[in-house]
Amino acid sequence: MMKRTILFACSLWLSIVAMIAADNKCSGIVVDEANEPLIGATVSVPGTSIGVPTDIDGHFTIQVPAGKKIRVYYIGYKSVDLTPKADLGTIVLQPDQKMLKDVVVTQSVAKTRVTPVAISNISAQTIDLKLGNQELPEVLKTTPGVWTTRNGGGFGDAKTNMRGFKSENVAVMVNGIPINDMEWGGVYWSNWAGLGDVASSIQTQRGLGATIVSTPSIGGTINITTRTTDVERGGSVWYGMGNDAMNNFGLKVSTGLMKNGWAVTLLGSRKWGDGYIQGTPFNSYNYFVNVSKRINDSHQISLTAFGAPQTHYQRSSQNGLSIEGYQEVKNYMNGESMYKYNPTFGYDKNGQMRNSSYNYYHKPQISLSHIWQISEINSLSTSIYASFANGGGYSGQGSGLGKYTYSTWYGATNGQINTTFRCPDGTFDYAAIQELNANSLTGSELVMSQSTNSHTWVGLVSSYKHEINQSNGNRLNLTGGLDVRYYVGFHKNVINDLYDGEYFIDYSSRRSVKPELNSAAADPAWAYEKLGVGDVVYRNYNGYTAQEGIYAQGEYTMLDNRLNLVVSGAVNNNTYWRRDFFYYDKEHERSATTNFVGGTIKGGANYNFDKHNNVFVNLGYISRAPFFSGGVFLNSTTSNIINENAVNEKVYSFEVGYGFTSKPFALTFNGYYTRWMDKTTTRGGTIDKGVHEGDRYYMNMEGVDALHMGLELNLNWVPARWVSIDGMVSVGDWKWDSNASGYFYNQLGQPLANTDGDIASGIMAPDHLHATINQKGIKVGGSAQTTASISANFIPFKGFRIGADWVVNSNNYSDYQISASQLGGGDVNVAKPWRIPWGQQVDLNASYRFKIGGVNATLYGNVYNLFNNYYVVDAYTSTSTPGTWQNAYRVFYSFGRTYSLRLKINF
Known about the structure:
Blueprint: H1 2-21, E1 23-31, E2 42-44, E3 51-53, E4 59-65, E5 70-73, E6 80-82, E7 87-92, H2 103-106, E8 118-123, H3 124-130, E9 146-149, E10 159-162, E11 170-174, E12 177-178, H4 195-198, E13 199-206, E14 220-226, E15 234-242, E16 246-254, E17 262-273, E18 282-294, E19 299-307, E20 310-313, H5 323-328, E21 345-347, E22 353-355, E23 358-362, E24 365-373, E25 378-398, E26 412-413, E27 416-417, E28 428-429, H6 430-439, E29 446-469, E30 475-497, H7 507-510, E31 536-558, E32 563-580, E33 594-608, E34 613-624, H8 628-632, E35 649-661, E36 665-686, E37 696-720, E38 723-736, E39 740-746, E40 770-774, E41 784-797, E42 800-813, E43 815-817, E44 827-829, E45 835-836, E46 839-852, E47 855-864, E48 872-878, E49 889-893, E50 898-906
Parallel strand pairs: 1-7, 11-14, 21-28, 40-44, 43-48
Antiparallel strand pairs: 1-4, 2-3, 2-5, 5-6, 8-13, 9-10, 11-12, 13-14, 15-16, 15-50, 16-17, 17-18, 18-19, 18-20, 19-24, 20-23, 21-22, 23-25, 24-25, 25-29, 26-27, 29-30, 30-31, 31-32, 32-33, 33-34, 34-35, 35-36, 36-37, 37-38, 37-39, 38-41, 39-40, 41-42, 42-45, 42-46, 46-47, 47-50, 48-49
């Protein structure tokens, strides 16, 4: 028996050796014409699906089948075909006169050992391997300083913070074009759900970053570059499946760059499923079109259009329960995890599934780019873009005539499920609302409205670049440009379901309309008007934002390419106004126009001691205009009153870093210090007594300062050609650095006079509730301040790749809500937050490459949270009591074990 075992083991080992020997393992370094590493260059085997990206130092290792060639390609450069050998040495790519560089795109991308910022790169191959059924930003969770979670858990509802700054302070760029919302600054990832299918690379720049648009980031920048004319001729088709009935299929075809100078790429896909969280089914489509034309040696145009129309049900970020609250709903879940419970999931009287948290949206983006290579040293790139978005969600409304208000629709309040309309099985009782309305003598007491948040956004980004090559070998690159944007958001609520009532009276909203601003309110009967499906309730306004900016950058390279100096600056003018058609009549509908001038100045240097060691430093100052929402207007939903105390946010930032690069090992280590001042933001709470008990309120806070500093380490080790190890550690220390003040409003945007929910006589009137929040020294919540990961990837035999990521987080603090019991005295002291226990999970990924029917195919498999370890990722505590696990609420846990499987066929 032992002899047979030994013989079998020897035979198996020889078979594996034979398979490996059948391929050529090749490695090398890819650099540009200036001998600088090209990050994310594609090294592939033509006629197969084999391909790898170069790493941050231009290194690559690839396994090449016998008899095949190697092709090295990078956008804007001539491709190179090579004969395989073990050491390909340094491969120099030359600029391609057939493909002109787009300055708008390339100016936003940083280079290792050149650009003095902290960066991380994710290649298309890594996205293919790790994305699976995750949200796109989740592929960044092994990146230093990045904290991404699923938030409430609905499709596309992920949140992404960098260095403790929330999404409105993280710039997201697609092909050099900004996509952050123009009114509040954030990004809804559900609107961009298809980017994972078309992205050729993702680069994160932490801190000030290298992007030189007129409005910079504070926490960092996420640069997403899509596939355009860098795609070779061919295509692919795929089908995937995963947990909770997730399905995904798609088709992509590309002509490549044809002899007539045209190149066309088309992609379409669909993804749908039941959702991991209870009652959150989703349906998403994705399309991508790029048509490019190389006109002559000097001109190239490119038209790109993409979008992802989707619908999905949600679990609101307000509907997280307490730790004990989840234990109480365990019996409702029929063996499923209690952490999947959704308190707004239920059924109506006909047995139809209902969920009052629902989102639908389609945000297409269309851009037309022109590249003009004026001469060998001068170029001009211009992109005109437009987005015509349409969508919104559900918003429950209450008449305000009886005991039921808009808050009756809430699934949970302060971590406890609301029981007013609750079935014995734990589901929300929508049938009871239908019965209530059907029996009411005053119409529907509760209705559902469609909350529309559409927009029209047009813009232009144009960059001119001039290169000066000096006789001593030094280079000076000068870049300058325009960044112009115009945006109008359309916001209104219309009744879409009376829930079996005959009509609806919107007394809760109309009672606060002032006759001197809207003459209709002079008639007392107007507040009691009978409304039906399609009628407007609660709000109806347009928000306008216009921005004109200029930017410039000088980059000087000297000392035989060892020293690179960068200085950049920008100035922008921001104009805001709004038109309100609900709280104001025609004469008063337009607000005053207000302007804020912002700007930035930043600089840095990178010095390469030798081919292995480099250091960099950057520093900068930002003056950013306040946002339309929560900044410029005291209440942008219901009022034209401009915040007289609104001022620009100020940011000082400093960073220093060290890098080491060698063939088997690379390391970067950096430290940062960011001081953020005069921020405007909002904080919420819940009325805990009286007839309005359970209603939510929020406070517009002014004069918020914060201090963010920390250390980051990133490393890559390739001990052998068939194995690579990556790791990162990020340690932050983020605290609020000032006390702040502001006014309080209810959920309908009406000014509050007290914590009983009574309405004040006007915004900023003497009876408008006001307070100072003493938060200085309190830890910033909502992001883990310490994160770490170890990733291992193996290629044990031909065509097979397997890897694992171990991701760890700690020093994650609860965010805070303002306790109603502390209001009335003028000052609110913020208690110490809850330090959430550390969390960790292991994710597996694998792929196997093979032939099927004469074409190349790849099978991808992913298992996330392999050991099904649940840990808290988000929580809130009250300002009135030191935070503990017993009093934490709005708690969300990590997803348990999930999986996906996908087959991709290339042709």
